[in-house]
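Annotated sample (chain length 103).
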Amino acid sequence: MDVGIDGGGARVGGNFRTYLWNGLSNCPEIDQEEAPDILADGHHDFERHCKRAFTSPGTSYTVAIGGRRMNVSALQVTKGVLTLHGYDVTQAACSGTTTSQFS
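Output written by the structure step:
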């Protein structure tokens, strides 16, 4: 499976959704009924602000997610801002998890 960086491409967006969904679905701090909405909001912000700038696994980005009150240490979310490491997104493609049900 090719998990390379495709800056601005569908692969990066899909990898981000997989990474975020894996984190949300395994986090006891998140109400699982709200997880699809949080995923949609985070993905929207990623698409608008980070996706085109995404260039390598060694870079970090920030993504608005879940509102200013959201703090989830397991996902590195503080005050509604997710710190996203490029390496985590590229590795998400290897997990085999799909988010197609939430597309």
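Annotation: The chain has three helices and three strands.
Annotation: The helical segments are 10-25, 35-50, 86-92.
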